[in-house]
Amino acid sequence: MCLIRNVQKLSVLHISQPHQNGRLFHISTNNSIKWRLSCEFCRRNRDMRFYSNGPKEPDGQGLKLSGQLTGDLLKTKVDIDNNGDKQDFKGQENSEHKEKKDEKKANMFIALNLVFICGFGVCGVWWLGQPGKDQDGQPIEDEFSHLPKFEATLKRAWRNINLTKEAIAEPSDRKLLPDPLPEPYYQPPYTLVLEIKDVLVHPEWGFVTGWRYQKRPGVDYFLQQCGPPLFEVVVYTSMPAYTAFPIINSLDPNGYIMYRLFRDATEYKAEGRMGGIHVKDLSCLNRDLNKVIFVDFDSKAFQKHPRNSLGLKQWTGDRDDRTLVDLATFLRAIAVSGVDDVRKVLDYYKQYDDPLEAFKEKKRELAAEFEKPPEQPKISTKWSPGFFGRR
To answer: What is the DSSP letter of 302?
Structure first.
């Protein structure tokens, strides 16, 4: 009786002649057959040799029993393979069913979202397309009242959408500042427009403190030197009012800043897919642009009036910075000189990489020229007639 426990795969087995001692049987397989036997055996290449507990000289009945046992093993293995194939097919079928189910759920989710968006859009168009009502709740006639109701609703909704877009993009008013002060009040001759973010203060954020604003060195001196009576100081910032208002109150306790304009006074322009820029339109200031100087670090902010602008480098918190001191000296020189058009002066200094440094260099050259001693007039050695004869 052979000690056989497990067979994975078998093909046609060939039983060789018994060994001379009558106890060794030789079973050979094809190259493509993979199988495993747990018993006492000797392995030679792809041949399996089994030891039997039977008699030394196997008779015909022993060989018959051996062949019957091999057939039973083959039948069992075929049944196992068939069951395995069925399980694999069933698992593959379940996987395909799950994928189809997930795809169906995704399509259903997309369809529900589309229905929701379309429904929301229809409700929005209907709400925006309704005419206004008076105090008694009666509809107010407009330019679309004579049209069919459906057409009037669509056109009225489109008009309201454009008005909302303009309200967001355009400045809050085309006249941002009041008229210049009449006599006997004093109106400064020049207008200085300032951005405060990264020009006068720098925002910093920390996990403990949150948002904080660092004051630039020389702010107090700058406001004192450039305030009235030389300049009418106006803050024109892209920051919202609820953020900038308390900052300005802290920076200017003496009231040198006469007017404050915030983000709603800027013109918004979309730039790219996820953002935009806030452009300052100086033509809305109600002031003579010949005497308006705008100080900012962002060239995109003053793209409408580049000649009136003086671009500074963005301040990032350097405590040794002296830009505001130099800027105050430069602006005072313009105001004291009484130029009719500040844009000509700004155009001249913009040809340098650093206008303030160029102004300082010109100032040093002028001071050195004034410090030179005057030249002595030459004494003539020739005789010339005079009141008392020759001299």
So the answer is: T
